[in-house]
Amino acid sequence: MGSKEITYQQIYEENYPKVMRLCMGYTVGNESLAKDLAQETFIKVWQNLEGFRNESGLSTWIYRICVNTCLAEIRRERKKDKNLQIDNLQVSDSVDNATEKEDMLVQLYKCINKLSSTNKAIILLELEGLPQLEISEIMGIKHEAIRTRIHRIKQQLTKCVHNE
Amino acid sequence: MNNFEDLQNKWQNQTTISATEDGFQSLLKSVKFIEQKQRTGNIVLTITIVILVAFLLYVSGYKSATFMLGIGLMICSLVVRIAVELYSLKKLRTINFSKESNTFRSDLTSYYSFRKYTHYVVTPLAVGIYTVGFIILLPLFKATLSNGFYTYIQCSSVVFLMVFSVFLYKQAKSELLKLKQLQLED
């Protein structure tokens, strides 16, 4: 393998789980669709790797590609969203707690799916625990506006998971 | 009970698929395949252009004005349509996926707006001109070809036009839907 391939493999191994989680959020837990989106994301990472100039962190750069790939691709699959494939969701926990948490996770996916694609991206990044400044860099929305928006979506999401 | 931090905790603790060596090798294979496909596409395009130029040189020897007009209209409409398609592809490839999401969204919207113009103006015009060129050639076909072959050309052209129109309609419908959804978003 050449040096580009070695760097690429390192990037892939370090970032695959978070890219996959983000794609799962976009596809309402549809694992096969999420895998396709993650693959598409990493193909774009390869194609743009030489253009990466360290102006933002590598992680921010990958998140941008992932969010944009999901934004562009998800439109094709929107009709399929009706068939939510969220039966296989799992949480790593003791057996007693697992079922309750899985139910909540299924509910969380359903509630995320009700958001617009921009809000979906914002809240998925927030759920990942990214600093709001980084989210604003990924989305291209001012920090102050992101802060307000996140506050609103958080309330909306928590209420949705509670009520349904 | 379910405050956001709780949800965040559940989110981060869900079991996701981790990266595997097999997964990476399959990804690398896809990446190489795409690069190979792009190279093959360029070769096919070059061959097509060479064939088209050779054909034009060949038919330029014919003295019939009607033939030249008919074939000229057909080839010109095809060339224009292919050129627009290649330009679109180039435009799509230059959209930078690593840009801020807001900028990316407006680039994508501008791309699909351009495609709307292609679907509503360029494509119907190209199909129309191609058909007119073909109709101009029909009397010449009738005079020079056998009855059976002439009927075959007539029937196959109608089938081709119908299949091609359905294909174009589906492509236009899908892209216009994407544009609509992009413009609907907040």
Distance between the termini of chain B: 31 Å
The residue-averaged pLDDT of chain A reads: 83
From N to C, what is the helix and strand string of chain B?
HHHHH
In total, the number of strands of chain A is 0
Q: Report the radius of gyration of chain A as a whole number of Å.
A: 16 Å
Description of the molecule:
The complex is a heterodimer of chains A (164) and B (186). With 164 residues, chain A is mostly helical. Chain A has one domain (3-163): Rna Polymerase Sigma Factor, Chain: A (Orthogonal Bundle), CATH 1.10.1740. Helices cover 74% and strands 0% of the residues of chain A. Chain A contains 7 helices and no strands. Chain A has helices at 3-26, 31-48, 58-77, 95-113, 117-127, 132-139, 143-163. Chain A is globular. In chain A, 40% of the residues are buried. The model of chain A is unreliable at 79-87 (pLDDT under 50). Chain B is an all-alpha fold and 186 residues long. Chain B folds into 2 domains: 24-61; 63-186, no CATH class. Chain B contains 5 helices and no strands. Chain B has helices spanning 4-13, 21-59, 65-93, 101-144, 147-184. In chain B, helix 3 runs antiparallel to helix 4 (101-144) and helix 4 runs antiparallel to helix 5 (147-184). The interface between A and B is large, with 60 and 40 residues.
List the SSEs and their pairings.
The complex is a heterodimer of chains A (164) and B (186).
Chain A: H1 3-26, H2 31-48, H3 58-77, H4 95-113, H5 117-127, H6 132-139, H7 143-163
Chain B: H1 4-13, H2 21-59, H3 65-93, H4 101-144, H5 147-184
